Amino acid sequence: MRLSASLSFSLILVAIGAGLVPVIAIGFGQGYELSRLFDAYFFRVVTFTIVQATLSTVFSVLFAIPVARTLARRQFPGRGLVLRLFALPLALPAIVAILGIVEIYGRSGWLSRLTALELDIYGLAGILIAHVFFNMPLAARMMLVRLDQIAPESFRLSAQLGFGAGAFWRFIEWPAIRETLPGIASLVFLLCAASFATVLTLGGGPQATTLEVAIYQALRYDFDPARASLLSMAQLALCVPLVALTAAAAGRLQHAPALRAKARRFATDTAFSRLADGGILAVALAFVFLPLIALVLAGIGAPFAWSAIAGAMITSLFLAGGAMLLSLLLAWPLANAAARGSPLLTRLLSTAALLAFIVPPAVLATGWFVLALKAGDPPHLAPLLVIVMNALMALPFGLSVLTPAVSQSAARHDRLCAGLGLSGFARLRLIDLPVLARPLGLAAALSFAISLGDLTAITLFGSQDLTTLPALVYRQMGSYRLDAAAGSALVLAVFSTAIIAMAERWR
Amino acid sequence: MKKLLFTLIALAFAAAPSTAQQPKLTIYTYESFVSEWGPGPKIEAAFEATCGCDIEWVGIADGVALLNRLKLEGKGTKADIVLGLDTNLTAEAAATGLFAPHDAATTPMTVPVSWSDPIFLPYDYGYFAVVYDTQVLKDPPKSLAELVDGDPNQKIVIQDPRSSTPGLGLLLWMKAVYGDKAAEAWTKLKPRILTVTPGWSEAYGLFTKGEAPMVLSYTTSPAYHMVAENTERYQAASFSEGHYLQVEVAGRIADSPNAELAKKFLAFMLTPGFQDTIPENNWMFPAAATSTPLPEAFGKLVQPVKTLLFSPEEVAGKRREWIDEWLAAMAR
């Protein structure tokens, strides 16, 4: 396991190095001007990046906690579907989700019409709504995986001790959620810090500019790799300490040994808690599903460009499926190493996994492109690069689901396995796969969703022969075909829900 | 699963390049040009019917990405022709030293400015314009000044000049009209701007969703709605100061082994075989005569009273400074 973890770790570093080094090298050729980098604009952009990402993270996580708790406590018809649909915002290209959000909260949206007010969300409010829409469901799902692992003994014991809902929360639920917070918060923070189209479109103007925008501008409009790589370094310098800080604030993982009895909740139900849970659920469902419903309504009567959609669907399936597999293959040894290593190693590995997210994909892609040219531009490289980039982008998601689950399983089963002499494939088949089916399924679903929704890598390496569904949606929008784009977006949504359902059903 | 895998492998082999003996002309262009509803496929059929050659398109996101790709590839580029830069990019493109003179006769050309660039040859053009929703806006602005000074409750969506071609177009338009006072004008216009999107698609999407009654687009945008959707709801506002021009051009790579073929293609660009596809596929004005009169809808479009255009050199030299000025005015 050590060996494969080092292998996976080195692969990540090589991929990132292969992106960064050529860009920095070109930059050196052009000469660096440090004074031009650290100007008032730069500091304003950094400040805004931190402020909006922090607020987005706080709101997403605070909203996710009661939602996850309610979903863990309550069984209701359609719960499974709700959970699957919670991965959907990730799989939607930003512009599709933005149009859905605007349909609800915009100046001529449902809410404005209902209240006869003209809401103006353009500014920080719009950015926050969109970021919470993208990330609250993600955070809730990740917390839920942990809550579902609460040992059945805990329920029995707390019932015997006569815990009320308050005590149960304080001693059982909150410690479990707390464990997941650093990982979830850093992931959400990075997602928001790297957000680009959402921030610009809903931000109202250039006062809402993130570092990512500045990097994009430096690389594209100014073709200034020096500036781009320095800005990427700044992004690294900004994000890595933040990630490390949240990791340090983490509660130690607690492993209660458990018999694999079926968890049964002993209800501490009151009329009030029912009402409260119902209310939380209603708000959460409305918040996540109204924009999705708007999306469905917009797409349902659209002219579907079936031949283009079918081709894009196969490409999407192929690329996102490949990325999902690669991402899980990279994440599995890392999660195992992190679960059994020192806290420092755990922190190091999870930070490394986030690297691919912190270094902007546009920079990575430029570096890879330069290297590919040097290697004589081998044919059929483009789909491979898209898969690798998507796998790297999906890695932090898989890892933050797998690491806590694997470490819990390790605490429970390592001694048993050592005693039985179980290792390698036999252990994987008999112990890990059955025990970890649920987190593995979620990791697979999230990786698939994030790869499916990707517009960054496919824009950089795609071509008319390599078109994914999001690329098709975007291309249709760019050619006035907004109604056809709405149709393709609907197909994308249905398709990804189906695949996510399959990925999770497999347990 | 096995069947699917087999199909995929079979498809991969079927898609492998055929080993035809014909010379291959590689054209780099922006993506929407070669999409199935763009002009690319029709142009390919028309040119291949006469040239005894095989056109291979390489679609790259947009004009700016096209130029960057070329800079990264340098002398090793596989392109024979680069099609899809505009006059805001030609100075930088020429500075790469990769291009050779077009050597084509410019007599058939009908672009609204005199053309002296020896390297790049126009194939279509369009004017930037404020497009508005006639169902909401009964009294659209009649000039840039009216747009700047008008009711801040009537919003417009614009694009970011740092990431989008039309966004840069509006920046240059404002600069051409207001000169040194452009920053002031931007500050005045700011309350009217609903939001600044990264690209044209986001802005146009918000506009057609009804979020704002105005959007920055092209004078030809209404033609799409008239032809494809049969509605005159969306119209372009005619501005008394004139409209800023965008001319799209192509050029050939100096080191290309297919130089003769490339020259032939550039000459073909100004013939009806190419130009006929422009109006209803690229939604721009053709740069030379077409075999049939323009579609009726094009006759109803705004005719700019004056054409505004900076020289490529001026844009290349000042762009950075002007964007900084815009940022300072807008971020206040």
Fill in the keyword field for this structure.
heterodimer; A: 507 residues; mainly alpha; 23 helices; B: 332 residues; alpha/beta; 12 strands; 41% helix
Verbal overview:
The complex is a heterodimer of chains A (507) and B (332). Chain A is mainly α and 507 residues long. Chain A has a single domain (2-27, 39-506), classed as MetI-like (MetI-like fold). Chain A contains 23 helices and no strands. Chain A has helices at 2-30, 34-37, 40-73, 79-85, 88-91, 94-105, 110-115, 124-147, 152-160, 165-193, 197-203, 211-220, 225-248, 271-300, 306-340, 343-358, 361-374, 381-420, 424-435, 437-452, 456-461, 469-478, 482-505. In chain A, 52% of the residues are buried. The mean pLDDT of chain A is 85. With 332 residues, chain B is of the alpha/beta class. Chain B has 15 helices and twelve strands. In chain B, strands 1, 2, 3, 4, 5, 6, 7, 8, 9, 10, 11 and 12 form a twelve-stranded mixed beta sheet that branches. In chain B, helix 7 packs across helix 15 and helix 8 (182-189) packs across helix 15. Residues 4-20 of chain B have low confidence and may be disordered.
Which helices and strands appear, and what pairs or packs with what?
The complex is a heterodimer of chains A (507) and B (332).
Chain A: H1 2-30, H2 34-37, H3 40-73, H4 79-85, H5 88-91, H6 94-105, H7 110-115, H8 124-147, H9 152-160, H10 165-193, H11 197-203, H12 211-220, H13 225-248, H14 271-300, H15 306-340, H16 343-358, H17 361-374, H18 381-420, H19 424-435, H20 437-452, H21 456-461, H22 469-478, H23 482-505
Helix pairs in contact in A: 1-13, 1-15, 1-16, 1-17, 3-8, 3-10, 3-14, 6-14, 8-10, 8-11, 10-13, 10-16, 10-18, 12-13, 13-16, 14-23, 15-16, 15-18, 15-20, 16-18, 17-18, 18-19, 18-20, 20-23, 22-23
Chain B: H1 2-15, E1 24-30, H2 31-34, H3 40-51, E2 54-60, H4 63-73, E3 81-86, H5 90-95, E4 99-100, E5 121-133, H6 144-149, E6 156-159, H7 165-178, H8 182-189, E7 193-197, H9 200-208, E8 214-218, H10 221-228, E9 234-237, E10 243-253, H11 259-269, H12 272-275, H13 278-282, E11 285-286, H14 296-299, E12 307-308, H15 312-330
Parallel strand pairs in B: 1-2, 1-3, 6-7, 6-8, 10-12
Antiparallel strand pairs in B: 3-10, 4-10, 5-8, 5-9, 5-10, 5-11
